[in-house]
Amino acid sequence: MPHILLKSNRNYRLIFSASAVSNLGDGVSSVALPWLATLLTRDPLLIATVATAQRLPWFLFALPAGVWTDRADRRQLMLRADIVRLALTLCIVGMVLSTTALPLPEDSGPGMILTLAALSFLLGSAEVIRDNAAQTVLPSVVAHDDLERANGQMWSAEQVASQFIGPPLAGVLIAAGIALPFGLDAATFALSAGLIWLVALPPSRPRTGLRFWPALLEGLGWMRRNRDILRLALMLAAINAVFIGAMTILVLYAQEVLGLSAAGYGLLLTCGAAGGVLGGLTAPMIIRRIGIRASLLLALFAFMLLQLLLGLFSSVAVTGIALFLEAAGGMLWNVVTVSYRQRRIPGELLGRVNSVYRFFGWGAMPLGALGAGALEPGLGRIAALHAPYLVAAAICFLLLFYGSLKLRFD
């Protein structure tokens, strides 16, 4: 039964709870951060700069993060990253409180939005360390046979916290004061750090003697020799680039195409949460029924369909359906690929190979965010807000075609 793992495994329960708590704060900030950006500027390219800055660390630091993860105590890395994120989020609170009036006038200059981008970059840097450590610590907490179930449960809880509860709560908090959602985010990082501090793992033996470049090359070499995982990493790069581009523009799409308020935008995002929860809970069953390859192709079809819906229609209901499909497909993709990597990659290389994988898979996100924000010149405003989704649909179709030819696991 799904609840047994949480009941019987204390360390998993603590990590699960820390993830759910911090993702509640992330769900709040996922609405509050782009909304704050729109209060500082109406320029799509500058708004995209904030999203780009938050994802750029995956390109810059994903590879060294893998070496650091294999050389250090992974629990300590998670703890310290949460503390850093707490401090940085409090800086955003301070920045908002120091601003006399929002929204800023059009001629106020880019200073505030660039400050927000800088803080987003630092938050993203801490996230790189934290997420890589969290993903590599899980196989030492649960049995290999329980990985799909553990990953599915954890990501379902994250979806409930970050999408069902967080976005509507953000809408209420934004209406009361734009600093409030970031204050809540800071509190969740503090609680997450406390829960990770309580985790009691067997004494680890960090490989402090690993020399940086030989260690990194060892991880790169393993990835190069294992073409199935390399192929998934490259496909994930394209998926994440179009996803982050779509999400970067979504806040303006919601305001100007759908006419939503902050509360309405938060409620819209809960449609994605419903898909994510369903995908997380049903993914292990789907994988058992149809296999790894068919599960990945199903996820790719969902990605293509959601982009077409957003690109061709201007309806709140259709947008909600599209976000539902994206989250369900994304959860299925993640449960398949992460569990597969956690089993396949040797434990002593897990941090480094995971970081190489995420360098490709997540490093393309800044390009997607910046590209989506740069599509307006030469297009009308509404056409420019639909265009990223049509481009993304074409890319997802090519990925589906490529996957049907190249993915072979069964």
Quick overview of this protein structure:
Helix content is 83%, strand content 0%. It has 410 residues and is mostly helical.
Helix/strand order: HHHHHHHHHHHHHH
Instruction: Supply the number of helical segments.
Output: 14
* Rg, Å, rounded: 20 Å
The fold-level CATH name is Growth Hormone, Chain: A
Descriptive report:
The chain has one domain (2-406): Growth Hormone, Chain: A (Up-down Bundle), CATH 1.20.1250.20. With 410 residues, the chain is an all-alpha fold. Helix 3 packs parallel to helix 5 (111-137) and helix 9 packs across helix 12 (350-363). The longest helix has 51 residues, at 262-312. The model has no long low-confidence stretch (mean pLDDT 85). It has helices at 2-8, 10-40, 44-71, 74-97, 111-137, 147-176, 180-198, 212-225, 227-257, 262-312, 316-344, 350-363, 365-373, 381-406. The two termini are 26 Å apart. It is built from 14 helices and no strands.
